Structures are given as structure tokens and as C-alpha cells.
Amino acid sequence: xxxxxxxxxxxxxxxxxxxxxxxxxxxxxxxxxxxxxxxxxxxxxxxxxxxxxxxxxxxxxxxxxxxxxxxxxxxxxxxxxxxxxxxxxxxxxxxxxxxxxxxxxxxxxxxxxxxxxxxxxxxxxxxxxxxxxxxxxxxxxxxxxxxxxxxxxxxxxxxxxxxxxxxxxxxxxxxxxxxxxxxxxxxxxxxxxxxxxxxxxxxxxxxxxxxxxxxxxxxxxxxxxxxxxxxxxxxxxxxxxxxxxxxxxxxxxxxxxxxxxxxxxxxxx
Amino acid sequence: xxxxxxxxxxxxxxxxxxxxxxxxxxxxxxxxxxxxxxxxxxxxxxxxxxxxxxxxxxxxxxxxxxxxxxxxxxxxxxxxxxxxxxxxxxxxxxxxxxxxxxxxxxxxxxxxxxxxxxxxxxxxxxxxxxxxxxxxxxxxxxxxxxxxxxxxxxxxxxxxxxxxxxxxxxxxxxxxxxxxxxxxxxxxxxxxxxxxxxxxxxxxxxxxxxxxxxxxxxxxxxxxxxxxxxxxxxxxxxxxxxxxxxxxxxxxxxxxxxxxxxxxxxxxxxxxxxxxxxx
Lengths: 269, 279
What we know:
Order of helices and strands of chain A: HHHHHEEHHHHH
Largest sheet of chain B: 6 strands, mixed
Oligomer: heterodimer
CATH class of the largest domain in chain B: Alpha Beta
Largest interface: A-B, 27 and 38 residues
Order of helices and strands of chain B: EEEHEEHEHHHEHEEEHHHH
Helix content of chain B: 25-40%
Largest sheet of chain A: 2 strands, antiparallel
Shape of chain A: flat
Distance between the termini of chain A: 55 Å
Number of strands of chain A: 2
Radius of gyration of chain A: 24 Å
Number of helices of chain A: 10
Radius of gyration of chain B: 20 Å
Structural class of chain B: alpha/beta
Number of strands of chain B: 10
Helix content of chain A: 55-70%
CATH superfamily of the largest domain in chain B: P-loop containing nucleotide triphosphate hydrolases
Shape of chain B: globular
Strand content of chain A: under 5%
């Protein structure tokens, strides 16, 4: 049932984007998101679209996978579109019915909002498609490490994420086993109304929690036996390395941001 | 005699108050010679796992002392030194792996003790080579068999270049094929690399080739000796809930039934040979 679970959505390939340092990718994605919400010109949208297009092309990721990310969010997108269309009162009225009015300005605003959100989903999707969960974790740890000075547990956070990722398949398999064992003794997980279904999950969850705590205990002991002593003085087998690709990406992003700021102040179109 | 581990009169209680619980270890003493292969056998709850955890300072004795390579485990400053000297592999392969990639997991211990990156790379590759798992270096441990996972755990300990490796019921969750593989690996580490091995187990077959066997029961070390001497005491071992190797058992029964056959046989081959020599 859970056998072939692949968590995260990493798409293995050997593109330049895949080879980039996770720290650069994280910072670029973050910068892009901020810039995206500052766009106020038509040229801005074109440039942002072009930027996304170049990144997707460089990553050699199937566009189909990017669209897959939008699917679960279609309702929110629709909701935002509708809100923008009906609640913008300014502009020329194109259509009116009862208290509802659709204006040309509202329609444009809604479409642009939609484009923004889709670009956002595409870009963050690109990040997770081209970076393994582990290297994302390493990247986050490294980016947050200056905060260690103010006692922020950057290493501990990253270690927790790593262990969580490591145990997802193990616990899924275990859930499957417990469910089957309980079903063999007459438990039923898929009959009855929502309340009954939720109730039948309780014995499953209790068993799972007990086992997870036991595993945690053993793992802690094993980590101690292997000299784990927190993040202090730790080294890495594969330390993060900045390469030419990263600088190229950084320069491209800086140029992009510069262009966006220019568009905002100097209205070209 | 050069002993790498000395356990002197160790008593251990999980609860400080002796009235609440019986001692898990009760006056245990044993010595492990440098470079030897030692087996500690006993049934469930005999205290053998508790003993194992004293050998790398995971547990500290309530009474008595444990000395590892000349260092008392009570010495708090030396605790990481002790754990580097005495590595440990645990029973459940799933609950001792930290990383989602095999080689990353093998590197874990080395990263903890701050070995420089190129050196980690080198030692990880060597350790994987030694346990014969090089071709799985980049795969996810989740898809491997129990025996393969345990080999990776061994590689993780081996990479830290310990002088002693403690196997704490490493084969308990494995199928017979996996079990044989792990024991072969342990013997290889002992013979070729000179690492002292302490195998804690309840499978008697695994201790046939050991240099010394210690038998645990109810928190006490009740007997020790070389396999050939110890296994002759079939009745004594059976009483403790331990089953002697099948060849020894058969030889013992035949001997009792009046067949002229020695009792100190350990393997099927030896038994077959002895039977063929019968007139």
C-alpha cells in the first residue's frame, strides 16, 4: 500500500540548476517571491515570466510536473480570482447583475493576481524538484547558522528534519503493518461515517506513537554511541561548495531584481 | 595478558533504590584480551545487553568499575574517547540509521568527531569496501535487506577505527542467510584488522569459533570458558534456557545412550567424522 512512496518531489537529473548550491537556490527563490509581489507594471510581468521560463528551461524539469503543483490549489486560485473580479469597484463596468459588477480593472487585476500566484507555485516547485530534501536541510542549516549566536538551534532543527525524513518510510510501513494486524482481528477503517472512521484510527495512532517513542529512544542511544554530541565541532563528508553556476545564478537574479526595480520607478510601458 | 576491557565486580540497577528492583547486573566480572573474539551468551533478560552498554559508557556501573583500553568509564571527560575506542552495533537496523543515503549514514560518526572532509570520504569508502557494500553507497537504506542494513551499521562503526566492536544481538532480527553473513564479517574484522570483537547473542552457533565464552544468567556471569570445554556442560546450559549447537547436543545424547563418541564436538563436520570412525 505505501511501498513505493517517494516523499518530497525531487526529480533526478543533472542540470545546472540541480548542481547549484542549495543555499543559493533558497536565497534566489526567497528574493524572487518578494520581487514578485512588488511588480506593478506590464513589463515587470513579462520579465518575471521570462525569468521563470529561463529557470525552468535550465532545470530540464518536465513542465507537466510544475502544473501538477497547481492542481491541489485550484480552489484557492478560483476563490482569489472571484474575489478580485467582484470586489474591485473602480474602472469601467463591463457587466452588472443585481449587486454584482464586473469592471475591466477588476478583471485585469484578477488575471494578474492569478499569474503572480502561478509563477510563485512554479518557482517554489522548481526549488523542490531540483533539490533533494536532505540538501535543502543542509542549506537551511547553513543559512540559519549565523543565528546560532543568539541561541537559535539551527543545527538541531536540521537534524530533526533529517531524522524525520529518514523515518517517514519506516513509519509508513509500520502503519500499514499495524492496520493489517488490526484488520485481521476485525477492526475496520473504511466503514461508517466520518466520526466512526476517525474513532477507528485511535487504536492505530496509539500503537504507532508507542512504537515511534521506542524507536526514538533506541535511535538516541545509537547516536550517542556514535559520538553524536550536538552541532559543535561537526564536519561534513560533502561540504557545501559554491561553484561558477551559483555565481551565474546570483548575477542573473541581481540583474533581474535591478530590472524589476527600474520598471517600478520608470514606467516604461 | 593484555586486556582491552576489564569489568570488575559491576552491579547495575535501573532504579537507584535497590528495594524497587533487582539489580540488572549483579557483581559481574570479566576480561577481554586484546585482539580476541569473545561471545557473551544468555537468554532474554539475563543482563547481557545491559552489560554490553557498560562497555562503551552508555551505562555507568552503580558499583564496581569498567576499564576500556586503560580508561575508567566513570571518567566523564574521556567518554567520547571511550566511545571511539569501543564501537557498538545494535539489534534493530532501522533504529540506528540516521541518514537517508547509505554513505551519509556511514559518515555520521566521523562527522560527529570532526574528521576533515577528504579523510571522511576515504574512510567511508574503505569501510564500505570492507563490509562489501560499496555498490550500495548511493542508495537509500530503506530498500535494503536486514543483513545489508546491519553491514552498513558495521561500516559506520568501522569507519571510526575502533579497537573494539560490540555486537549487541546484531543478528536477532535477521534471517539465517543474513545472520551467517554478519558473523562472517565479524570474524573477518577480527582476523584481518585485529579488531577485538564482543558478540552478545543468544545463538550458540555464533559462539563456536569464539576465543572465550561468558554465560550470563539473572544478571550474573555464571560460567566462562573456551567453546569446546563449555559446550560439554549440556545439562547446565539447557537448565539456563540455552540450546547448545545441534552437533554437540546429538553427540551428548549418543554418548549418554552408550555410544563411544566424544562429547566435545562443535560442528556437523566433526560429528560426521567421529561417527564414521565408529566401529
